[in-house]
């Protein structure tokens, strides 16, 4: 697969050769509850793909690698841990990518690089709003004045702003609280909240389990739903070939899933709590998810749009998206 030029959240600069430590720690934040991030997290971890492509020659000769995988419920805590220098890589959805880039641009010297996409749905399918199975609510207009939970800072959080704008619903009329996917599932099951908004595949998971009913699908926004992976500037500049190895692992993960989605879904179900039937809705040929690591102009435009929504409704800080290109080492 030919590697396309990538966009980043900072300009990538050359650094002088250095002598690497005998052990290099690689900390990766991933999301086992978010299907669209699997090629850059769950699958790489499950198949040990990163180890296959890590460099072992030249400056990396005799180096040992300590890969640390940390599972998070959404993209927001991954960004916080990257800012705190606790994670080198992170996988997340579109709105979290925007928040990630904006937060890093607020720092004096550190930045984050968008190094690969993982998967997308061109029309926005994947996000959804679910009500308890016995709820009498049938449309989002009936949610005004009621409690809606969502992982704050996630793609589904951004979808709520898009939905409110499209449906002319004042955001002030929605009582939005922060809940992780697991907490949201529990609250819907116990009929403790009016609705829960979440990213892929939580809505389908709740319908499959018979505890929730989707009343709004992200496809109604007609805005592409994206996911990707970022790395800190400091790590990428120090270990550029490890970033290349990570991208190679993502491409290999894509190929493994695409070759036999049914087998892949069964394996991914063993690595996560998501049933294979739900995973197959996403990863089957013609399913919700399209796997492609390329960072295109269309995706940059989508991130610009996402940022405009957050700037308008959530007071997001400034974030320069479109002008930020780099020349990360090409995959050979």
Automatic annotation (TrEMBL):
Keywords: Plasmid. Gene3D superfamilies: Periplasmic binding protein-like II. It holds the Pfam family NMT1. It comes from Acidithiobacillus caldus (strain SM-1). The keyword Metal-binding does not apply. PANTHER family: ABC TRANSPORTER SUBSTRATE-BINDING PROTEIN, ALIPHATIC SULFONATES-BINDING PROTEIN-RELATED. Residues 122-262 form the SsuA/THI5-like domain. Signal peptide: none annotated. This is ABC transporter sulfonate/nitrate transport system substrate-binding protein. InterPro entries: SsuA/THI5 (IPR015168).
């Amino acid at each position: 697969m030919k590697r396309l030029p990538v966009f980043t959240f900072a300009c990538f600069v050359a650094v002088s050769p250095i002598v690497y430590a005998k052990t290099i720690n690689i900390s990766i934040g991933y999301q086992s509850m978010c299907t669209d991030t699997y090629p850059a997290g769950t699958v790489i971890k499950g198949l040990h793909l990163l180890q296959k492509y890590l460099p072992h020659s030249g400056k990396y000769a005799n180096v040992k690698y300590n890969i640390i995988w940390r599972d998070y419920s959404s993209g927001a805590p991954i960004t916080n841990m990257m800012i705190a220098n606790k994670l080198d890589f992170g996988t997340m959805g579109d709105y979290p990518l925007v928040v990630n880039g904006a937060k890093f641009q607020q720092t004096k010297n550190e930045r984050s690089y968008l190094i690969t996409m993982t998967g997308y749905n061109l029309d926005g399918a994947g996000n959804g709003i679910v009500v308890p199975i016995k709820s009498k609510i049938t449309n989002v207009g009936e949610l005004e004045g009621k409690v809606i939970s969502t992982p704050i800072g996630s793609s589904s959080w951004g979808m709520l702003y898009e939905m409110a704008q499209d449906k002319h619903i004042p955001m002030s009329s929605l009582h939005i609280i922060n809940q992780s996917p697991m907490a949201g599932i529990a609250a819907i099951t116990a009929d403790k909240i009016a609705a829960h908004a979440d990213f892929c595949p939580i809505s389908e998971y709740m319908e499959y389990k018979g505890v929730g009913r989707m009343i709004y699908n992200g496809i109604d926004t007609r805005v592409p739903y994206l996911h990707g992976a970022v790395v800190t500037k400091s790590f990428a500049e120090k270990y550029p070939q490890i970033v290349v190895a990570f991208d190679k692992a993502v491409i290999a993960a894509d190929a493994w899933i695409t070759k036999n989605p049914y087998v892949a879904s069964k394996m991914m179900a063993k690595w996560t709590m998501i049933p294979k039937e739900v995973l197959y809705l996403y990863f089957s040929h013609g399913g919700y998810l399209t796997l492609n690591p390329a960072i295109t102009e269309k995706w940059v435009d989508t991130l610009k749009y996402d940022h405009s929504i957050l700037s308008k409704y959530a007071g997001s800080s400034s974030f320069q998206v479109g002008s930020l290109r780099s020349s990360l080492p090409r995959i050979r």
